């Protein structure tokens, strides 16, 4: 159960979900129409490509999967814990994510799959970085779990079973952030094309700086941990 939600958890979750939403829309609207932020569809497409012997698609899809996993692995190396807690090295992780997104733009513009790969590393890093809070999964790069939790909450309330309202609002914040990011990305892409990624790259860097300032002002590591 989520007993309380510090400001940095609320703002961080919504902001990172919005960033992921923008990145994913750019991937979908790009030359490969490739999802970036989640791997379920990508793995299904990989299976279909293997079945029909499409070596080119197999290679590209496998690169995306391995890049996402590599980003998550990088998060494990940097943060070394799966529980959200003030004092972790999130600022470093966010700075790396920002640089990866900036670097992906010219590669995308040259229609190289490496652009999508760098974006997948960035989002894999982000998704692993925001893993759990108060024993509850917090994922900012895809919404299946959030919608599942939302449905469970509504089902519990209909049955009169006690449900944690803060969990509901956290789900809605992440869903709303991701959707807003998709809308913004969809509006900007026709004009700015892959340069749209400069916005989530900048926002990631800003989020990292804001976290570092907040962490400094709140004192020792672990002060706001559940």
TrEMBL record:
Organism: Lysobacter stagni
Database matches in InterPro entries: DUF1275 (IPR010699)
Superkingdom of this protein's organism: Bacteria
Pfam families: DUF1275
Keywords: Membrane, Transmembrane, Transmembrane helix
Protein name according to UniProt: YoaK family protein
Keyword Transmembrane: yes
Residue stretches spanning the membrane: 7-31, 61-79, 91-108, 114-133, 168-191, 197-214
């Amino acid at each position: 159960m989520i007993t309380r939600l510090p400001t940095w958890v609320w703002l961080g979750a919504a902001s990172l979900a919005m960033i992921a939403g923008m990145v994913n829309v750019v991937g979908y609207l790009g030359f490969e129409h490739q999802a970036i932020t989640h791997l379920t569809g990508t793995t299904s497409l990989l299976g279909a490509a293997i079945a029909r012997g499409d070596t080119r698609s197999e290679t590209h899809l496998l690169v995306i999967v391995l890049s996402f996993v590599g980003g998550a692995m990088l998060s494990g190396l940097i943060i070394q814990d799966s529980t959200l807690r003030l004092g972790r090295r999130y600022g470093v992780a966010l700075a790396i994510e920002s640089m990866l997104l900036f670097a992906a733009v010219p590669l995308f513009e040259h229609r190289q799959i490496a652009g999508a790969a760098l974006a997948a590393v960035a989002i894999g890093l982000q998704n692993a970085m925001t893993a759990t809070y108060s024993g509850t999964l917090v994922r900012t790069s895809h919404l299946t779990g959030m919608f599942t939790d939302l449905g469970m909450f509504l089902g519990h309330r209909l049955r009169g079973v006690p449900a944690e309202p803060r969990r509901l609002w956290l789900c809605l914040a992440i869903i709303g952030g991701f959707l807003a990011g998709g809308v913004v990305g969809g509006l900007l892409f026709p004009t700015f094309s892959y340069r749209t990624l400069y916005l989530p790259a900048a926002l990631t860097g800003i989020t990292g700086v804001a976290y570092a300032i907040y962490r400094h002002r709140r004192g020792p590591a672990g002060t706001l941990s559940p």
